[in-house]
Amino acid sequence: MEKRFDKIIDRRNTNSYKWDVKENELPMFVADMDFEVAPSITKTLSERISHPIFGYSTMPDSWHESYHFFFKERYGWEIEKDNLLFSLGIIPTISTSVRAFTDEGDEIIVFTPVYHVFFHSIENNKRKVIKSPLKYENGHYSIDWVDFENKISSPKCKMLILCNPHNPCGRIWNKDELERIGNLCKKHNILVISDEVHGPITRPGKEYVPFASVNDTNKEISIIALAPTKAWNIAGIQTSAAYAYNKEIRNKLEFALNADEVMEGNVFSYLIPKACFIDGIEWLDEMREYVYSNIETVKKYIEENIPSLSVSEIDATYLMWIDISKISKNDEDFCSFMRETTGLYVSKGSTFGEEGKGFFRLNVACQRSVLLDGLNRLKKAVDNYKE
Ligand SMILES: Cc1ncc(COP(=O)(O)O)c(C=O)c1O
């Protein structure tokens, strides 16, 4: 296992968004892993490529069956075949839902700091972002329930975009929290779009909770965006699914996804879920072990060598959230300084909303040797930085 994930694969000059950086730079920003994919993925793709015609595709039964198998086995959640729709990506599903279920000028709430593309899906469609800042205490993030209910009781507020588990802080929302979100959203007539793309990437021994698996209320008031793309690192192959239990919601969503022309995949899109959700499970669990031992490595390194920084609790994703507020209130300045002087390229915290000021996000889905290089660069930057 160690060998598989320790293997360095040169991604420079491969049109990789992550690795399109200067020679001396080390990218640890965008959510993209540097590991060789599961053998089942390479096998599925090579078999398909060996047939030399790439015309329009139909959807095999394995597409539904793969989602059904994985979510039932792992989380006890039954995904009924008819309730699952194909969509090219998580963000296409979110943006389409924004347009289909809200009107221009409506308010859409998010828990911040949060994956910044949610802001784009809302604002590009002329809706208003309403932030409910998460509370941050002793490295732990939690929902401010009073603030949340206050904001969703506005008649203009129509939708919650939930990140479950949460990117960037890596919180797994537990059953009680998801139930409380569901009850409040039902009370105030809020549609929940739950983005669960990071769901399978959790600390070994812990699992995330699919929003719709919690109870009937949650099922009735939500659209769940699912995909194997983050956990198996195949974002370059566009494939995802949107689950809607409520018939009225599902019909409207299907019409809107169709109108946006995001319901048809490429030749690989329909084949790849089986390679991940059924045949790629061993790889997934090994990856989680490796990534979480990277996370422990970072925590230990920071404790021993850079005590002015601290690391927030993390149980999901491979994206660590590092508190630099003791050395800088200006994350943008610190991150630019670090990139310029050491080449280490991370995501500045304020990208995820102003609540992310004084933090940066570090992608640790890389080989241990690369991680150690990154940590040494980080120490150098902190040692030399003056605000
Ligand atoms: C929370 C979250 N949602 C969605 C995406 C992107 O999904 P897609 O490429 O399927 O649109 C990302 C990518 O990093 C993400 O972190």
What does this structure look like?
With 387 residues, the protein is α/β, with parallel strands linked by helices. It folds into two domains: 140 residues, Aspartate Aminotransferase, domain 1, CATH 3.90.1150.10; 227 residues, 3-Layer(aba) Sandwich (Aspartate Aminotransferase, domain 2), CATH 3.40.640. The protein is 39% helix and 16% strand. A seven-stranded mixed β-sheet has the order 2-10-9-8-7-3-4, with helices on both faces. A four-stranded antiparallel β-sheet has the order 11-12-15-14. Helix 4 packs parallel to helix 5 and helix 4 crosses helix 9. The longest helix has 25 residues. The chain is globular and about 60 Å long. The model has no long low-confidence stretch (mean pLDDT 97). The chain binds pyridoxal-5'-phosphate (PLP). The site of pyridoxal-5'-phosphate has 14 residues, from helix 4.
